[in-house]
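Hello,

Our lab assistant flagged a job as stuck in the queue for most of the afternoon. It eventually completed. Since we weren't sure the result was trustworthy after the delay, we are filing this so someone can double-check. Below is the sequence as submitted and the structure that was eventually returned. Let us know if re-running is recommended.
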Amino acid sequence: MGLIASLEAMLDGGRDDALLRFSLGSALLSAHRADEARVHLQAAVAHDPGYSAAWKLLGKAQLAAGDEAAAGDAYRAGIAAAEKKGDKQAMKEMQVFLRRLQKDLGK
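-- returned structure --
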């Protein structure tokens, strides 16, 4: 059984938390399944709105799925979450990603 199948089995077995959803979203994104990944990453941040790593990965998944506006929203929410938590590294990374996105969109 592969990683994605194992994580899905845990979810189907009744476990549902931010870490499981983050792990599943990450595995799906790595497998180039961005639309599926973002569903699980959205669930991760719904479970834990302060989970800055999940916000960062959600932004990447939104971009991979072609939804630049949603990616920007995820990065902004992630920056706020990281700032609130004192996670300066994640905050700086998402600020860079957001600036690149805005530059690419001509904003």
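-- support follow-up --
The delay was a queue issue, not a problem with the job. The result is valid. Residues 46 and 70 are 15 Å apart (CA to CA). The mean pLDDT is 95.
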